[in-house]
Here is the input.
Amino acid sequence: MTALLHSLALPLTPAETDRLRRHAAAVLLGNWTGAATVPSRTLYPHQWSWDSAFIAIGLRHLSVRRAQRELETLLGAQWGDGRLPHIVFNPAVPRDAYFPSTDFWRSSTAGAAAGAPARTETSGIVQPPVHALAAWLVHQADPAASERRGFLRRAYPRLAAWHDYLTGSRDLGGAGLTANVHPWEPGMDNSPCWDGPLARVEPAPPDSFRRADLVHGDPADRPTDLDYGRYVKLAADYRDRGYADTGHAFAVEDPAANALLIASEYALAEIAAAAGADPAPHWHRADRLTSALVDRLWDAEGGIFRCRDLISGELIDERSVSGLLPLIVPGLPGRVVEGLLATLSGDHFRLGELPLVASYDLKGRSFDPARYWRGPAWFNTAWLIERGLRLHGAEDRADALRAAVLAWAGRSGFAEYVDPFTGKARGTRDFSWTAALALDLAAETSR
Here is the structure.
C-alpha cells in the first residue's frame, strides 16, 4: 500500500505538467460565465464565495483581468452590513438546478433590513474569508495593471467592511473571534465536528425540500438526508429572523475560518497601504485575533485547534483538518507550530505516509473516506497547509505536499475531492478550485 501511495504522488513529468496546465485552463474557461466562475456546471451552477477567492488565485496566472473580475463580481453582491454571501445566484440558471435557490433564501426581501442587494439574489449566510488574501495575490501578479485599474482602491473599502462584519456582528462569543451560524459557513459542510451541535436541531420535514445535489452527486459522497434536513431548518430560521445575528441554535468558533480571517487581515494591511489607507488597525486586529485563536481554541494536549460550540461553551472533541489550517497564521507561538507539525505527521493524519491530508481524523469514530468532509482529502486545504508548512520553515514537507497535489489533481481529472488512501476521484470532476490551485502550485514550482 505504501509503495502504491507514493507512486500515486510521484512528481509529474514536464509533459504531464504541461498537460495539467492546459487541462486546468480549459476547466476554468469552461466554467466561466462571463462575470464569474462556477465551481461546477452541474453540481454548483452559481458563484460561490470562497470558491471564487481560490479560483482568482489560480486565474491570475492566466488572466489578471479575469481574476480581478472574479472578485469584483462577488464584492458587488455585498450586503449593506458588510457580509459577503456564500452564493451569488445567476438568474439565467433555472431555479430547480440547485437547492436552496432564490425562492428559499429570498434575500432581497427577507434580507432588506440587513442591506441585501435589491437587484441581485444571494444566499444569506457566509463562507470563510479568503478574499483579501486572494485580492493581494491577484494584485501582486501584475501590480502595474492593478494600479491602472484602481483594483485595490475599489476593493479595499468592501473588504474592510467584510472584516468589520465578521469581527463585529459575528463575534458571538465575545472574545474577538468570528462565529459561524450554519454548518455551510465554515465550508466543511458535514464535518463530524458539527454532529454534536446539530443534534440539538429539529430537522425540516423531508417533504418540505428537494435535494438537487443528488441528481448530480453520488449519495454515498453527499451529506445524509437527516443532516440536510437540519441544514434547511437552520437556514429557514435565519431567513425568518431577517438574517439578524441573534438567537442562533447553531453557533461555533471554527479555527480554519478564524485562521483565514487572520491571514486575510494581514493581506488587508498590505492592501490598505497600497490603497493609501492606514494599515496599522489591520496589523493590530490580526495580532488580537491570533491571541484569541490560541487562547480559545488551541488544545495543547491534543496538538490541534478545536472548534468551540458557543451554545454549550465547550470545545468539540473531534480532530478535523480545520484544526490544522492555523498553520497559515504568521507569528504563532513556536510550541503551537511544533504541536501542529507533530499532529500532521502523527497517527491521526499521517502526512508523509499519505500524500495528502484527510479532512477528518483517520482514527476518528466518524471517518469515511468517501463522504464529503468526513474523511476525503481536499485540494484547497492541501494548498493552505502547503503554504503554512512553507511559512514555518518545513520546506521539505511543503515540497512533497505540492508534488502530491499536482499529481493527484491532474490524475483525478480535477476532482472535487479524493479518497485519501487511493486517490480515487470523488464528488464532481473538472472542479474549478482544484484546477485553479493546481495552476498556482504549478506556477510556483516553475518559478
Summary: DSSP finds 18 helices and nine strands in the chain. The CA atoms of residues 193 and 318 lie 6 Å apart. The mean pLDDT is 94. The first strand starts at residue 47 and ends at 48.
